[in-house]
Design a protein that fits this description.
By secondary structure, the chain is an alpha/beta fold. Helices cover 18% and strands 30% of the residues. A hairpin with a 5-residue loop joins strand 1 and strand 2. It is elongated and about 65 Å long. It starts with a strand and ends in a 10-residue tail after the last strand.
Amino acid sequence: MPAASDADFHGDGEIMTSPVAREAILLVGGQGTRLRPLTETTPKPMLRVAGTPLTVHQIARARQFGVTRIILATSYRAEVFATGIGDGTALGVTVEYAHEVTALGTGGAIRNAAARLRAAPADPILVFNGDVLSGVDIGAVVAAWSRQAADVALYLTRVADPRAYGLVPTDDSGVVRGFVEKPTTPAEVVTDQINAGMYVFRRGIIDEIPPDEVVSVERQTFPALLAAGRRVIGVVDDGYWLDLGTPAAFIRGSADLVRGRVPSPVLLGPPGSSLVLPGAVVDRRARVDGGSVIESGARVGAQAHISGSVIASGATIGAGCIIEDSAVGDDVVIGAGACVRASVLAAGARIAEGTRLTEARVWPGQSQPGEPGSSPPV
């Protein structure tokens, strides 16, 4: 596949070209253990965020920036992707699959997917972590990669407390000076710039990763490239970024999409305080706000208040319920007068009338009779 570019026409008649990455690898093989019980039946990237799987949001954003072929690097519950995404026709791209029987790490997954790439050795390949919701300007990162003749460009963002992430200090021109994975001492916190989970690789660099081995790009590939004198740059984008690795982040990400705080070309309605999808039934005396989504087939009773929450398909919320900052899975039934705050209720759970849950996790099909004021252990 030859290197591609898009033409930009300027007022003086000059035609400027900017590089476009036509192929991408999406890393979707993780088990999502921190998101259990939601991920007991659905892999994390296929969880619906504002009513649409996260993977679909990511594919649609990549397509906006010129990507036409996407390789999904799958492992855990790969069949869910094949059923939900198919060959990509509905999304306007070609989707292929590279499955790992045994998880190979981020680098190993990228190398395993490379067999399906068509790009030439010098062409740009985008790589996305499958659990990140962001408004990054993908084109700007690719342009910086090309302008600086980099081997790899990393999308970076700044966070107030970087200790839970991989730190990436750079010099004034953006050249990476080192990598610090999840620092444990104050002396190691040398920057607030973190690895935000999107990369532009020169195709030939991917081919250098050892095949059929467990490899981490963060801990092995990137430091090795620096040690070998290869050009690795970081591109800081201070727009929206969120790692959806925890239930609270998943719920927040959905609400932010609904409210238009992060762009997505596949949002299922206009941005606003709530998103009620066709086929949902919400009593006129109920209140839905805070970026909540009510999916098709869900029912919300009179005087219920749903705030900042995800109410999945087929769920039933009884009269007078209060649901705040929570994820309510498919076909969950919550009895009248129950109060659920900062909790995750997996598919098919049953919550008795008047139950009080705070920071609870209820597993698929589990019943929670409870007592008023009680909350099960997380």
